[in-house]
Amino acid sequence: MLDKFVASMATLRIFSGSLEIVAAIIMLRLNQVDKALAVNSALAFTGPLVLIITTTIGLVGMADKLSWGKIGWILCGVSCLLYGVLKK
Predict the structure, then answer these.
(1) Where are the bilayer-spanning segments (predicted)?
(2) How many angstroms separate the CA atoms of 17 and 30, rounded?
(3) What is the pTM of this model?
(4) What does the pLDDT look like over 22-62, one tens digit per residue?
(5) Side-chain half-sphere of 15: how many Cα atoms within 13 Å?
(6) Are 51 and 59 in contact (CB under 8 A)?
């Protein structure tokens, strides 16, 4: 039996990957650097958002197995990752 949390996380990643592929096809069809850059910029928001949502689903699925300290460390790690990625 497939775990509902794992299924949700995988579905979200499949959706995210499909969105990336569609964006790449759109960039190829537009065939202009400025428009391709605009499409790429629109995708810049989806990566961190998918990371946050997927991690949240995973943490909710494991909440009964983790101590508050471990959950705090995971959230700290995700926060550091997002800070490093999103810092200008």
Answers:
(1) 12-30, 42-62, 68-86
(2) 20
(3) 0.74
(4) 999 999 999 999 999 999 988 888 888 898 899 889 888 98
(5) 13
(6) no
